Amino acid sequence: MALQRKEYLFRGGHVKEGELPSESVRRELLEETGVIAEAESVFAVQFRKEQWIIVFGLRYISGEPRSDGYENSEVLLLTPEEAVKRSDITNMSRAILNAYIDQKDNTLERGSYNSISLKDETFEIFGV
User: Fold this and answer.
1) Which end of the chain has the lower number of beta carbons within 10 A, N or C?
2) Residue 107 region, left (φ>0) first, then alpha (ψ -120 to 50), else beta?
3) Beta carbons of 15 and 56 less than 8 angstroms apart
4) 23: burial class by Cβ within 10 Å (0-12, 13-18, 19+)?
5) Terminal-to-terminal C-alpha distance of the chain
6) What own/partner pairs with CB < 8 Å and gap ≥ 24 does 87-95 have?
């Protein structure tokens, strides 16, 4: 019997209808890891024909990392610098982390602008 190699990767999920991406990342992270975090910035966006992927910079608020026993088998809460040194992360995760470490100032920060024509909960803006 061959041993399977375990690799760590970024959490992912889907945006529900009527949900903003930052709300989705908060909900998915809590459901799958028990950790509460807020989206502070957008670092990368990947477009594919079948999906759009947003890489958020998050601010930890609370919670002890735990597996949900379904979508993951283990959860680790690491800084980017700690995670990139590990040999058991995926190549894509390593590339994103290295880019983030090298270009932390190259992010779109969550803006504080409030539209007078829209309710606060109906939109979000990063970079303004």
Assistant:
1) N
2) beta
3) no
4) middle
5) 54
6) 88/5, 88/6, 88/7, 88/8, 89/7, 89/8, 89/9, 90/7, 90/8, 90/9, 92/9, 93/8, 93/9, 93/10
> Could you identify the residue written with the tokens 């990063």?
126
Give Cα 73 distance to the centre of its chain: 18
Note the pTM of the prediction, 2 decimals.
Answer: 0.77
Check if the beta carbon of residue 6 is closer than 8 Å to that of residue 87.
no
Q: Which two tokens stand for residue 24?
A: 């989705």
Q: Please give the chain's pLDDT, 128 residues, in tens.
A: 555 556 666 667 888 998 999 999 999 999 999 999 999 999 888 888 888 888 898 899 999 999 888 888 888 888 889 999 999 888 888 888 899 899 877 888 888 887 778 776 777 788 87
Q: How far apart are CA 84 and CA 96, in angstroms?
A: 9
Map residue 28 onto helix, strand or coil.
helix
